[in-house]
Design a protein that fits this description.
- Strands 1-32-31-30 form a four-stranded antiparallel β-sheet, with no helix packed on it.
- β26 and β27 form a beta hairpin.
- The protein has a single domain, classed as Methylamine Dehydrogenase, Chain H, CATH 2.130.10.10.
- Helix content is 1%, strand content 53%.
- By secondary structure, the protein is mainly β.
């Protein structure tokens, strides 16, 4: 079976006065938001590239998340606060502070239905309602937490050095704790909610089947495993490490990847800094320090064909962040020089 022809077509580009730390879409696909390391929050219209600076979360933003199905944009910052913004509102807003602490709030994320917001700080999982009212936190955990991913609207998976925990948000539910082989740099849950995968600082990939508690690890990476992304059908897990320009893709069909040879996607000449499967279909996009934006399609075909790129776009600066629109038809790309580009998938 041969792959369909496809390409990434440039739509627009804008140059913004900040470097990217996060990039996200509004749920309706009308806007792209760039969160900057110096604190600026920019909203860009996907239709005409019109730019609005919503406000500034000084001294710098750590992460941004748009409420699924809603208007609220949440930001976490280096000042220890979490703030809410009207993502569809006017420029020059002042963020509403809903939490402030002595540590950085990490792994900011709305639950899938958008009814609550969560982040980790120290050994606690903190939760707030969509309109900023505090909800019961979960903890203390045994280790400081750095990663969080929602499994479903009632369960969060959190992780820190040496541990992965399943937290149920219902009252009086105990924390389910599991061993993790090191310090996690990434945490992602397969779309079918079966498997939690964590990229580790010591060059390993850990994954755990959440229902059976079976776990496994893949080693041999060149550097820290700091990029992980699941395909929409939960079959493929794409990974990349800090010391290589290769993408390693594991196949979770059948009995899983143990004892199998992964796909090796080799086109990047330098470190990969962004990696994302589309939320629909099987398309994968990667971006790196080598200024290359690459389109891939892991799937049923000849191995040599699968491991070849479908399209390569050479940009004019390293790529820092990539984000797909919810319908999987457009890709927003943030470069390290502050430039944001929009590409349309032609397939």
């Amino acid at each position: 079976m041969s792959r369909p022809a496809a390409s990434l077509q440039a739509v627009w580009q804008v140059l913004l006065d900040d470097y990217p730390v996060d990039l996200c879409w509004s749920p309706d696909g009308r806007y792209v938001v760039l969160a900057g390391g110096e604190g600026r929050l920019y909203r860009v219209s996907s239709a005409d590239a019109g730019v609005v600076q919503l406000g500034s979360h000084e001294p710098g933003v750590l992460a941004a998340a748009w409420q699924p199905g809603g208007k609220w944009l949440a930001s976490s910052g280096q000042d220890g606060s979490v703030q809410l913004w009207d993502g569809t509102g006017a420029e020059g807003q002042t963020g509403r502070i809903i939490h402030r602490g002595l540590r950085w709030p990490l792994a900011l994320a709305y639950e899938p239905k958008g009814k609550s917001l969560a982040f980790v700080m120290g050994r606690e999982l903190h939760r707030y309602s969509s309109d900023g009212e505090p909800l019961p936190s979960i903890g203390p955990h045994e280790v400081p937490l750095t990663q969080l991913a929602w499994r479903n609207p009632t369960q969060c998976v959190v992780a820190g050095g040496g541990q992965l925990c399943l937290d149920t948000v219902a009252a009086a539910q105990p924390i389910e704790t599991h061993l993790l082989d090191g310090a996690p740099l990434t945490l992602c849950i397969s779309p079918d909610a079966r498997i939690a995968a964590a990229g580790l600082q010591d060059g390993q990939l850990n994954f755990r089947y959440l229902a059976t508690h079976k776990r496994s690890r893949m080693s041999g990476y060149d550097g820290k495993v700091d990029q992980t992304s699941w395909s929409a059908n939960s079959r493929w897990l794409a990974t990349a490490a800090s010391g290589s320009g290769d993408i390693v893709v594991w196949d979770f069909s059948g009995k899983g990847p143990e004892g199998t040879e992964p796909l090796q996607l080799r086109t990047h000449a330098e470190r990969i800094q962004a990696l994302a499967f589309a939320p629909e279909g099987a398309w994968l996009v990667s971006g790196g320090r080598d200024w290359r934006l690459v389109l891939w399609r892991p799937g049923p075909s000849q191995r040599a064909e699968v491991e070849a790129p479908v399209d390569v776009q050479l940009l004019d600066a390293p790529i820092g962040r990539i984000s797909w629109s919810r319908d999987g038809k457009r890709v927003a790309v943030a470069q390290t020089d502050g430039r944001v580009r929009l590409f349309a998938l032609q397939a």
